[in-house]
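Retro notes (design track)

What went well: tokenization of the new backbones is finally stable.
What didn't: we kept losing track of which sequence belonged to which structure.
Fix going forward: every design gets posted as structure first, then sequence, in one message. First example under the new rule, 79 residues:
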């Protein structure tokens, strides 16, 4: 589908430096695709917000100690 968009001259100049005048459309397509993926990721993160209880975890009293214990308990860990 074709679409008409307006961009500031400075944006077009930057696109041309990166993609060349003949690569503008592909550059804009890739930028829009990347922006949509990022927006979907934020939507997922925001929808999960609050799904884990704020208290009642093994690590509440000493998070750093809990992490150390987890690392030491992993026999695959080296170093």
């Amino acid at each position: 589908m074709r679409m008409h968009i307006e961009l500031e001259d400075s944006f077009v100049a930057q696109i041309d430096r990166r993609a060349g005048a003949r690569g503008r459309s592909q550059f804009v397509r890739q930028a829009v695709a990347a922006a949509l993926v990022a927006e979907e990721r934020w939507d997922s993160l925001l929808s999960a917000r609050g799904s884990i209880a704020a208290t009642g975890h093994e690590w509440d009293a000493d998070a750093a100690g809990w992490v150390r214990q987890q690392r030491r308990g992993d026999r695959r860990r080296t170093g």
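Added context from the reviewer: The longest helix spans residues 24-48.
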